[in-house]
Task: inverse folding
């Protein structure tokens, strides 16, 4: 976000696909946007905050079909789940748009018409590498070994389809000028080069209609080509202007251009290349910033339903407290970087940052002010007795805002926490209890008042992150957080004058153990409870715990051998796989493709020994044949290869 004092602030989240239920990644984008919107309102700006759901396209059509529903019925259901979650999370959106809204459809058709009329849209034939299984076209650069799908590894084929195209190539130079027009167009700034390089490599015109399915917005009547529906990204990106009434009732269009489009890094290209080009074609202003955050993973892995490692944001918020969860997400990860979600890290933040640093400080002054001054506080002596500390804290309060312009919420919070340290230290060195004994009541009062004022200011600046908790802290200090108190305490640097402190129940009770099980953990528990009903094979038995026992002959059906890694390489475009050549004492080494890239560098493997299942049927991974499997053990700390304790000749049988 920029520094210029702009009264109107338009903030958006991506609109979420309705082919999946909300998860922690969606919650993250929405919570960042909500925090920025709340901050802007507190600072007195006129904010419009948009979120919503993206409901067209083939994937959604298929997801609905799989559930025996019409696409609209299905979209209604999932869109409703997003909306209820944001309502439960108290997300302060001004509008929740759905791409099935009539006004949106009219607005998108209007935009298509404008771009068509000005010559930026033309009809041609799309020819591309198509993966039938993923139902997606890929560019030759995306393919693995010029043929295989980068998503599922299956073979692709060349398919032709009639399509309308947008003249993206025409906008290449203007896009490059736009990225250079200010250093923070794309946030984090480190992402700019990625986009610039992509554009410099040359832009192809973009296929923006489809004829292979129906669930999409039709072309405008004036174009009259009923076979086609709009490409879902054209439809979706337009939400940012149709929500303001573009093409229908334009009364909110004065909010345009957006201050910031908040998105995840996976959809940066759409927002930083296609979207500004569409806007240029429409003759509209471009957004001030496009800000792309990183991904949340579990134990370093992407979350997915099939892995059972998806984090349900509602469950976490219910267990740990919504605002604690908000604080954690915005404090834990630098904007733009990936973050690993763990309940341990969440618990540590709650116990340490919130409980020890913030909560205890409040308790300390409630206790002391009650004991010594009947809960009455006055700030008169703060400047005299704690001038240095006050100045240091005020400098921080006056300098944190720019971190939010760059969405560096972690830095912003880190800075605020420095003032809590100043406050804690002031108590430790000021020792109000000793001062009281020495009859220096003024000094004791000044220390308590310094801390109360620091807490008051922290609660104002923390308000957009933790709206209710901070209002409770402010309530305990006798004021309410609003634009007025923001101006007084932060902008003018005033102190609270005379006030009464009120007791509050503990804000951040200590948490010892993780409170939520992952779907995989739940499934494992369920499984453990079930009586074992697997038919034992002839000759098998059960041990006393009910586990299925096998005979030695069955064990020997598996051929396990010691192998020596003679070569190891990365697999192009794969985040997980390494290609190993393993000597098993045979004529030629075997090619084995193993999912160990996250834990082992290829060079460290060459010359080491591994244990190999040598009689597995060969399988194809990313278009490569894998002729065996390497044994490894994996737990929460990562993966370790199983190796012979002493070197053994390649091919030695294990058993
Ligand atoms: N419908 C498109 C956006 C259209 S905007 C005009 C879309 N939807 S999505 O539901 O798949 O993703 C929405 C957002 O959630 C993206 O910004 C994406 O980066 C974010 N996340 C999805 N999974 C995520 C994580 N595991 N972690 C963090 N955010 C991730 O894309």
Result:
């Amino acid at each position: 976000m920029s520094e210029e004092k702009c009264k109107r602030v338009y903030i958006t989240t991506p609109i979420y696909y309705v082919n999946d239920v909300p998860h922690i990644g969606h919650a993250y984008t929405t919570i960042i946007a909500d925090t920025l919107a709340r901050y802007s309102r507190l600072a007195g700006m006129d904010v419009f905050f948009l979120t919503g759901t993206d409901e067209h396209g083939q994937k959604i059509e298929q997801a609905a079909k799989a559930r025996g529903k019409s696409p609209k019925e299905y979209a209604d259901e999932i869109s409703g789940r997003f909306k209820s979650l944001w309502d439960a999370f108290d997300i302060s959106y001004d509008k929740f748009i759905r791409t099935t809204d009539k006004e949106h459809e009219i607005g998108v058709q209007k935009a298509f018409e404008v771009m068509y009329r000005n010559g930026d849209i033309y009809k041609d034939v799309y020819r591309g590498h198509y993966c039938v299984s993923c139902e997606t076209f890929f560019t030759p650069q995306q393919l693995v070994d010029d043929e295989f799908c980068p998503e599922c590894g299956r073979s692709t084929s060349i398919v032709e389809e009639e399509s309308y195209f947008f003249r993206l190539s025409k906008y290449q130079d203007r896009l490059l000028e736009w990225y250079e027009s200010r250093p923070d167009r794309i946030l984090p700034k480190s992402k700019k080069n990625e986009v610039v390089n992509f554009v410099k490599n040359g832009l192809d015109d973009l296929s923006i209609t489809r004829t292979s399915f129906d669930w999409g917005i039709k072309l405008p009547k004036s174009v009259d080509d009923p076979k086609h529906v709009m490409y879902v990204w054209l439809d979706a990106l337009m939400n940012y202007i149709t929500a303001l009434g573009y093409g229908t009732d334009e009364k909110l269009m004065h909010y345009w251009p957006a201050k910031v489009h908040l998105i995840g890094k996976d959809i940066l290209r759409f927002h930083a290349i296609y979207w500004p080009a569409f806007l240029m074609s429409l003759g509209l202003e471009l957004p001030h910033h496009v800000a792309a955050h990183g991904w949340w993973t579990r134990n370093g892995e992407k979350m997915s339903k099939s892995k059972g490692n998806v984090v349900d944001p509602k469950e976490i918020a219910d267990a740990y407290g919504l605002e604690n969860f908000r604080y954690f997400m915005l404090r834990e990860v630098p904007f733009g970087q990936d973050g690993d979600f763990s309940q341990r890290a969440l618990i540590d933040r709650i116990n340490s940052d919130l409980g020890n640093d913030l909560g205890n400080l409040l308790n300390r002054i409630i206790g002391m002010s009650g004991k010594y001054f009947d809960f009455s506080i006055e700030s008169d002596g703060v400047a005299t007795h704690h001038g240095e500390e006050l100045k240091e804290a005020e400098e921080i309060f006056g300098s944190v805002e720019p971190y939010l312009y760059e969405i560096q919420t972690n830095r912003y919070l880190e800075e605020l926490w420095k003032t809590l340290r100043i406050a804690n230290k002031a108590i430790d060195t000021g020792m109000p209890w000793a001062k009281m004994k020495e009859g220096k009541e003024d000094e004791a009062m000044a220390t308590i008042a310094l801390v109360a004022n620091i807490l008051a200011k922290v609660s104002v600046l923390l308000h957009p992150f933790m709206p209710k908790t901070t209002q409770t802290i402010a309530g305990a200090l006798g004021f309410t957080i609003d634009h007025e108190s923001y101006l007084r305490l932060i902008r003018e640097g005033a102190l609270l004058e005379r006030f009464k402190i009120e007791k509050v129940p503990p804000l951040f009770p200590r948490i010892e153990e993780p409170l939520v099980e992952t779907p995989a953990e739940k499934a494992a528990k369920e499984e453990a409870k079930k009586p074992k009903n697997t038919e034992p094979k002839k000759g098998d038995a059960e041990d006393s715990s009910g586990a299925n026992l096998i005979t030695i002959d069955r064990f020997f059906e598996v051929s396990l051998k010691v192998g020596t890694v003679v070569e190891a390489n990365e697999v192009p475009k794969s985040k997980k796989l390494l290609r190993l050549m393993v000597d098993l004492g045979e004529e030629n080494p075997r090619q084995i493709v193993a999912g160990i890239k996250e834990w082992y560098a290829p060079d460290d493997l060459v010359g080491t020994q591994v244990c190999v299942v040598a009689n597995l049927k060969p399988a194809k991974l990313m278009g490569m044949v894998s002729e065996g499997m390497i044994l490894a053990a994996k737990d929460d700390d990562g993966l370790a290869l199983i190796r012979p304790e002493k070197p053994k000749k390649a091919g030695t049988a294990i058993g």
